Amino acid sequence: MHTIAMKRKETHQVFRSPDFYILLFFVLSFIGWLWEVGIFLVVEHRFVNRGIYVGPYLPIYGIGGILIYMILHKLHEHPLCTFVLSMLLCSVVEYWTSVYLEWKWGMRWWDYSGYRLNLEGRICLVGAVAFGLGGVLLNCYLMPLYMKGYHRLSRKVRIVLSMILIVIFTIDAAYCAIEPHRV
């Protein structure tokens, strides 16, 4: 019984080593990329590499997911509360990311103007609901799976993998700072 309680407590710790967050960031960024590419495949019947980077990741999903984990981890047994707070948290992140990208590059990477209940085309209710569902999925179900995978890797492998991903991402970010990928 004590072991189960310890594992549950460990699953929802917030203060962890940097490789934990680096790997989580890339896993969530890749899942976000798959999600958006999948939407375009279904809706427009074509492959569209979403985002400003060339690589298969959307950092907004990684950042949003880490924020959900860090802020809402104690609510993993309360899906409704996680849903509402994920909606709000991710909508704020999405809104300000849109503002920043438009300020920085003079263009928008997404526009929800055609959706009902949108705010300046930057966020909308449908997107907020999707982020709420994603937050529940992440916080209540996927984090234990991530923990298992993370702990199966040795510390050395996790650090090397983190460094490789950071180097690839840094090169991609440097390239896209000069020539951003346009959707």
Textual characterization of the structure:
There is one protein chain. It is built from six helices and two strands; from the N terminus they run H-H-H-H-E-E-H-H. The chain is mostly helical and 183 residues long. A hairpin with a 3-residue loop joins strand 1 and strand 2 (123-124).
Output the keywords.
2% strand; globular; disordered N terminus; 6 helices; mainly alpha; 183 residues
Task: Give a topology summary.
Elements: H1 2-11, H2 18-44, H3 59-72, H4 79-105, E1 118-119, E2 123-124, H5 125-152, H6 155-178
Antiparallel strand pairs: 1-2
Helix pairs in contact: 2-3, 2-6, 3-4, 3-5, 4-5
Shape: globular
Low-confidence parts:
1-8
Question: Average pLDDT value?
Answer: 90
Spell the H/E element sequence. HHHHEEHH
Q: How big a fraction of the residues is strand?
A: under 5%
What helical percentage do the residues reach? over 70%
Brief synopsis:
This protein has 183 residues and is mainly α. The chain has helices at 2-11, 18-44, 59-72, 79-105, 125-152, 155-178, and strands at 118-119, 123-124.
